[in-house]
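Researcher: We're reviewing a set of sequences before deciding which ones to prioritize for further study. For each one, I'd like a predicted 3D structure that I can look through quickly. This is M23 family metallopeptidase. If possible, include the structure in token form so it fits the rest of the review sheet.
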Amino acid sequence: MRPRLWGSVASALLLCVAFAHFCVRIVPADAPSGPTPQSAGPATNGPLLIPVEGVPASALADTFTQARANGARPHDAIDIMAARGRAVLAAADGWIEKVFWSEDGGRTLYQRSADGRLLYYYAHLDSYAPGLREGQALRRGQRIATVGSTGNADPSAPHLHFAVHVMKAGEPWYGGRAINPYPLLARR
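Model: Here's the predicted structure for M23 family metallopeptidase, in token form for your review sheet.
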């Protein structure tokens, strides 16, 4: 091989290793779905509760600005990697605005904050908590669903796609302006 080609191969390998180290968290499929001993109970590092049971702030990666759809759009959310079936928890008090199936997000849930100014979007869910319905009040930490890979998510990488939108008065559930949830979940 020519030296220039070796340099390109080495650079590509280095980028892959860096991506895996900083952006990918591999969780075994047979990992327990309950809280781990070091993280018993919900994680509360930031103003919002980390919405996946047993996931510490140190396991979060800021993927908000990463490109999606071959660079056609920004992610505008973070992905919280976890074993399929792990409990998804309400990040804050509020109510269920919309329970919806979408081609991209799969099984989704939209939660309006108690003051109505924020919308929390939970996507790629495997299942909803029994009896869940639109209009239902939610308490921070309440189990609302389980982690999955529905919609356009990779079936081999179950995760929660979690987004936060700032809402204007009267704005519908599909509106708002995306803000980065990472600093709201994990103090920098």
